[in-house]
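Trying the structure run again after the queue cleared.
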Amino acid sequence: MTERVYRVAMGKGMVGSASDWDVITSSGIGSCIALVIYDPINMTGGLAHIMLPAFTGSSYKLHPYAYADSAVKVFITRLTGIGSDKKSLVAKAAGGANMFTNNHPGTQTVGEQNVLSVKLILEKYKIPLIGADLGGKKGRSVELKLIDGGLFVSTIEGEIKEI
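Done. Tokens:
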């Protein structure tokens, strides 16, 4: 049987169940965050390729999954809409790398801002972050297995780990 794969582009996201997709994947994750929110009881979950910490009104309006604050809200709405209980949700995240030279010492890089924002938003909604591969200087690609919530993170050097 062919594996059913959904590819999430930068700034986009997807929610589904193990009966819809086998894998949700995204690549090219540098300072961005690949955020997974998963319900292990119902085997439902989603993956967002978050680009920015928050929609400020002055930032270019992208898809809601592009911002940490709106992505988590959309996940909760969509997942509870397909039968998940908010109390069952858990999160995993990868990315937030420092891909560029910081020309403003003492200020946070975009990757650091994204990591902090994701952690704060998850805490606000009481969704535990149970696995993470954040920071560093390497870009990543991720694969979410909807059958069990496994998140596989790979780097350009070929390193693969499950979080």
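The chain has one domain: 5-162. Worth checking whether this holds up in the mutant runs.
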